[in-house]
Amino acid sequence: MGDLRSGRRGSDIAQPLLAVYALVGGLTSFIGYYADIPRLADWLNFGISIQPNTAIAVMCASLALLLLRAGYRYAAAILGVLVFAIGSTVLVEIATGIDFGIDGLFLFGREWGHSGVIVPGRMGPPPAASWTMLGLALVLAAAARIHDRLRAIAPLLAMLAVGIASLSLIGYLYGVTILYALPTVTIIALQTSTFVLAVAIGVMLTLPEQAPIRLLDDASPAGTLARRILPVVIVLPIVLGLLRLYGERAGLFDLALGTAARTLAEILLMLAFLWWAASTIGKQALARRQAEEQLVESLREADRRKNEFLATLAHELRNPLSPIRNAVAVMKLKKPDDPTLARASDVIDRQVVLMARLLDDLLDIGRITSDKLELRKERVDLEVVVRDAVEMCRPLIQQYDHDVAVEALPAAIHLKADPARLGQVFGNLVNNACKYTARYGRILVTLARDGTDAIVKVSDTGVGISPDQRSSIFEMFSQIDHASNRRHAGLGIGLHLVKRLVEMHGGTIDVESDGPGHGSTFIVRLPALPEQSASDVTEAASPSLLTTPAHARRILVVDDNADHAETLATLLSIVGHDVHTAHDGAEALAAAERLRPDAILLDLGLPLVNGFDACRRLREQPWGKDALLIAISGWGQDVDRQRSTEAGFNHHLVKPIDARVIATLLSRAPAPSDSSVRTAF
């Protein structure tokens, strides 16, 4: 990259230097006529002098370059128009034979400087064409409001002028007079050629965003090759040609030997420069690969830290949510008939569930984008999953007084799926339908079979979706742009998560809507298992926490968050269990040895002895081998669940915990032995 930075610095310096050279040269040449000093108009005394109108065009063009660099575009454009007028007027005179009488205005009566010109004071065709093109190029370069395609014409015109100047310069260098001295075709002074070349290169340097400077400034291998090879391609043939020419004139070798030597030298030197350029490109490519590898590694590290941060954030936010939810459940049990208290409890419970859902979505998106989310597939009844998802949204449904119906076929539809993740899919869809449907709206969930596919449609009478948003609604952070529903705006990741989860199950999701105000229908298509009779599937109802359990159990609740431990203990005690609490790992082990509980709800992040080690020690005890051990934690990633399983836990629950889930797990556990049976109270 060093040659690129040095090249850019060189470009920044070269443009004003070229402009100053042309300005000083044009001014000096004009002074030659004013002060009657012929040598100032023919520096090397070749017999062809620069004409005064050419000197004026040179000064105007060089001033325009300096003004462009300083940001005075309007003034530069005016000077560009003047340069164009000077060159084009001469071209018209040459083409038509009309003499406008302006060529000799600045000759100051001098009789010298007329060699080779058609009319005294009139420049030849090459400089006239060059200044016409350069004037137009300056106008295009100075235009602030112009399309890039038109601006790209400026460096093309400049390159044509470079070609004209180079032709005459080669003629002067090798003594080929036909290239610079034919009055009606090629007549041009040496210093005019250098001025044209300087201004043309200056114009190209003024537009670095256009070719060819854009390529020379490019950091790609093509740019590196161009920067290395271009000087060689220009300088090498000229130098070798001069050596051959002067060697032959000096009698050092004849034409054949000189040509052979030049050809051999060109081949060897070009190969050497090509190898040098290729070596540099190879080093840059290696450095770029190493930089890309470092970038990928840094991105992976950043992603890992991001996931750790999200997991820690979720853990810390879940901890206070759990005692809040427990307290709400206690309030509902103690004061079930108080309508004001019931409404307040419902509001708190809904917000806790919403917060937990947002935390789950954040973590799931992180796992999905890094391909770390695994599905725990099993045979599931689609209707059961859908109805459970609807029930999870029941608080929101009641809040908006929606009419929600689930229509299913008589014959059960079974899938090979992860019931928790599939419940997430339909829960998100019903949740969105509730939020984006006005109060007293209707939401219909239909289940159907289409060959080997199961189809679930979630329809609502809500705000609808415009056609231009349907294609992007499943993208990350996409939200329905509807001013009246900004109060419902969430993180914008729910539908993206739904789409990814459906695709992980081998299905598809689509949305239909007749536009804003006409509702919407989300269509989920999933691969279904072969049809079976309804008698093949049995359903076990989940117990309610409000009923007295069939078997009262001795339970130990362990959590360093005292609020969570006490509220959960109170909740379980109300329904008839004998509940005790502990607040660190050492206290838990001692209490467990003393109480020998039937079930232990154990937090993982405990002081003194963490939950994993405590679980292992409990399993080592004869009485602890068959105990029901449930991990309760704010950590809910797959790796956390795996660690809890390896430690010996029967189940892993993520805070905030739904007490009904605990009731279900307790009811499914084997009944306590006779020695440990407790009477419910």
Question: Could you characterize what this model shows?
Answer:
By secondary structure, this protein is of the alpha/beta class. The chain has helices at residues 2-34, 52-70, 73-96, 125-142, 148-151, 153-174, 190-206, 213-216, 221-249, 255-334, 339-369, 382-392, 394-400, 419-435, 467-470, 494-504, 562-574, 585-595, 611-620, 638-647, 659-668, and strands at 378-381, 403-407, 414-417, 442-450, 453-460, 508-512, 520-527, 554-558, 578-582, 599-603, 628-633, 651-654. The strands form 3 sheets. A 5-stranded mixed β-sheet has the order 2-4-5-7-6, covered by helices on one side. It has a 5-stranded parallel β-sheet with strand order 9-8-10-11-12, with helices on both faces. Strand 6 and strand 7 (520-527) form a beta hairpin. Helix 11 (339-369) crosses helix 16 (494-504). The longest helix is centred in the middle third of the chain and has 80 residues, at 255-334. It is elongated. It starts with a helix and ends in a 13-residue tail after the last helix. Residues 482-489, 533-546 and 674-681 have low confidence and may be disordered.
Termini separation comes to 81 Å
Oligomer: single chain
Fraction of residues in β-strands: 5-15%
H/I helix tally: 21
Q: Quick one: overall form? A: elongated
What are the segments in which pLDDT stays under 50 over at least 5 consecutive residues?
A: 482-489, 533-546, 674-681
Adjacency order of strands in the biggest sheet: 2-4-5-7-6
Mean pLDDT, nearest integer? 84
Number of DSSP E strands: 12
Largest sheet: 5 strands, mixed
Protein structure class = alpha/beta
Estimated helix fraction = 55-70%
Gyration radius from CA atoms, angstroms: 43 Å
